[in-house]
Design a protein that fits this description.
Blueprint: E1 4-7, E2 25-28, E3 35-37, E4 42-46, E5 49-52, E6 57-62, H1 65-71, E7 73-75, E8 80-82, E9 91-96, E10 102-104, E11 109-117
Antiparallel strand pairs: 1-5, 2-11, 3-10, 4-9, 6-8, 6-11, 7-9
């Protein structure tokens, strides 16, 4: 699959896969200067790129495990969604979950992008739903042991 990328800044770095079997392509910060994210603060980090995802696909922005475990930085919304009709700059709402200010530099890998197909459902209202063994059992209802 080819995904068209437009650099919005000369400093922008194209997403890249760091291993042969990586599901996520790294997204890089595109900054004029280093940014400090204070404890429990969220900052929008620009990537300097826009993209054209094929119709029927979405880009999902996930945390990078190393950044989350070493610095406590991860997307504030847990998973960001890029729709195929979005053409604006890709930004990462990076949240500092730690109790220490954390610096983010231009060119630093700040998140990972997973491109995935999706289905669009047609929602149909019904008075009754089919019965199942589980029924309306909610959170934790299947963990009886």
């Amino acid at each position: 699959m080819q995904v068209a990328i437009k650099k919005l800044s000369e400093k922008a770095i194209l997403p890249s896969y760091e291993s042969e079997c990586a599901a996520g392509a790294d997204l890089y910060a595109c900054l004029d200067r280093e940014i400090t994210i204070n404890p429990h603060e969220t900052v929008l980090i620009p990537t300097g790129i826009a993209m054209e995802l094929p119709q029927g696909y979405a880009g999902l922005i996930y945390a990078r495990s190393g950044l989350a475990t070493k610095k406590g930085l991860a997307p504030a919304n847990k998973v960001g969604v890029i729709d195929s009709d979005y053409r604006g700059e890709v930004k990462v709402a990076l949240h500092n979950h730690s109790n220490t200010p954390q610096a983010v530099s231009s060119g630093e890998r700040v998140a990972q992008l997973v491109i995935t197909p999706y289905l669009t459902a047609k929602f149909v209202e019904r008075n009754e739903l089919s019965q199942t063994v589980r029924g309306a059992g909610g959170f934790g209802s299947t963990g009886s042991k």
